[in-house]
Design goal:
By secondary structure, this protein is α/β, with parallel strands linked by helices. The chain is built from 17 helices and 18 strands.
Length: about 475
């Protein structure tokens, strides 16, 4: 990104002052930013109030004496042209229009209204939207959700949908994800998806870009922006509107020209973007990129406590495009010294159920098996599968809690060796019986999950999600030439 444009975008995401036009005590923008460092640089505009949160509330942005860098506009659509003119007169640099009711309605008069807004802002102010949630930037304090975590992190999100932008930020709390910048850009009258891709591609605080889009008004520029971005960092994308009905829904949502799924798949393939199919997969795909080394190949080993599950795991891996190779002879010989032969499958995947019950043997624990597998040259990644909590409780009874604590430490020590010393990615699947209503099982499940997350491992609730996430990591590694 050129220096002048970079400076402009730094100002957009890091404004010195913000006015919320249409502010109320019940709106998310006001409540969200009153809880961030932006609260001391926040001004309220609403002619229906004299005061909000103990502060003066202005009738117009023109009544504010202080300079305003950024305006959040949450007012009826028909009033937007007037308010934007006032913002331009005030010298506001960027406006975010939460306001909906424009071309996405399909109504001729609302399409004309959007054209009017486009003419007003041209050359006078930068506009995000309309029909969007705007920006969440923990560093500056810009926010659109009181539920968004305040911590800064490496994930950049560009979303045409405000709902998905909000889901990303709130899901971050559950998945322990942290964000650099999140932007919802809606109808993109002025600032569009390629603008934000170009900025995040050069942003040193962003290590990976997650993208949700429904269409584009400038395919060539989008292709160029994506191609440059993927040379610098991973880009994972979910394209909405890939079916005829979905395309129609996208048009009515943000007024987008969706295009055929084949065109979009070709675009993503040509530019090196990792395309996913669902929002859950988009979230899941991000985790390994910020917490794992890249795999040197497609060979996967899985450690599980069930022979039946090992068969399913193998099928799932092969279906997505990974491999489950046999262990080297040296690895097998070492494992035979560690894993009891009775009732186990000595191969890859490794059905190592007795090791899940052993936390005292100095040479026959999961820790030792993990270390042996890590050094196998056929294996480039590891999936550790943990489940059957109900059966654990049945076997161990009151001793389960103490046993789990020791087992967790052994598993984490082994996985850290694989990731940090050998340099291979480790994916954790902590699975709970979906039909279990036992609160103790749920508590122990959360205990295992949180322990691995605390050590920065990507943790998933299902085998399917674990394997897809690993495959997406491999897809990027293959592009990078690992």
């Amino acid at each position: 990104m050129e220096a002048e444009k970079w400076k402009e975008f730094e100002g957009i995401f890091n404004p010195r002052s913000v006015a919320i036009i249409g502010a109320k005590t019940t709106d998310d923008f006001t409540n969200a930013m009153m809880a961030t460092k932006m609260r001391d640089h926040l001004f309220f505009v609403n002619p229906n109030y004299k005061e909000l949160y103990g502060r003066k509330c202005f009738a117009s942005v023109l009544d504010i004496e202080d300079p305003i860098d950024y305006a959040v506009i949450a007012i009826p659509a028909l009033v937007l042209p007037k308010v934007l003119k006032e913002c331009i007169e005030k010298g506001v640099k960027t406006a975010h229009a939460f306001t909906a009711g424009f071309s996405e309605t399909g109504l001729e008069e609302r399409i004309k209204l959007e054209d009017e807004v486009r003419r007003i802002v041209k050359g006078g102010i930068r506009l995000i939207g309309p029909n969007c949630m705007g920006i969440y930037c923990p560093k500056s304090g810009l926010s659109f959700s009181p539920l968004a975590p305040p911590d800064e992190g490496p994930i950049g999100v560009i979303s045409q949908s405000g709902t998905f932008a909000g889901l990303f930020s709130t899901t971050g709390k559950i998945k322990n994800l942290k964000f650099s910048k999140v932007v919802s850009y809606g109808n993109a009258i002025d600032l569009d998806c390629p603008d934000f891709i170009e900025y995040l591609a050069d942003d040193p605080e962003t290590e990976i870009i997650a993208l949700y889009m429904e269409g584009s008004r400038d395919g060539e520029r989008l292709k160029a922006a994506l191609g440059e971005a993927t040379k610098k960092k991973p880009v994972v994308a979910l394209k909405g509107g890939v079916t005829e009905h979905g395309s129609r829904a996208a048009s009515s949502h943000t007024g987008s020209l969706a295009g055929s799924p084949e065109i979009w798949s070709a675009l993503f393939n040509q530019t090196g973007v990792i395309q996913v199919e669902t929002f859950s997969e988009l979230i899941d795909a991000v985790l390994p990129f910020i917490r794992s080394p890249l795999p040197a190949g497609k060979g996967v080993s899985m450690i599980t406590s069930s022979g039946g599950l090992s068969v399913i795991e193998t099928d799932l891996c092969v279906k997505v495009g990974l491999e489950v190779p046999g262990f080297e002879d040296e690895t097998l010989n070492e494992l035979k010294r560690i894993v009891p032969a009775a009732g186990t499958i000595m191969g890859n995947p490794l059905d190592a159920w007795p090791l899940y019950y052993n936390t005292s043997d100095t040479s026959g624990t999961l820790y030792h098996a993990i270390k042996v597998i890590a050094l196998d040259r056929n294996i480039h990644s590891l999936i550790l599968h943990f489940d059957e909590l109900a059966y654990f409780r049945h076997v161990l009874g009151e001793g389960l809690e103490a046993h789990l604590k020791k087992l967790i430490d052994l598993m984490i020590d082994g996985c850290q060796y694989v990731r940090d010393e050998v340099g291979k990615p480790v994916i954790i699947c902590v699975e709970l019986d979906p039909y279990s209503e036992d609160e103790e099982d749920r508590r122990h499940h959360l205990m295992v999950k949180k322990a691995f997350e605390k050590k920065q491992f990507p943790v998933y609730a299902t085998l399917d999600a674990s394997i897809k996430a690993l495959f997406n990591l491999y897809r990027y590694a293959r592009r990078e030439g690992f």
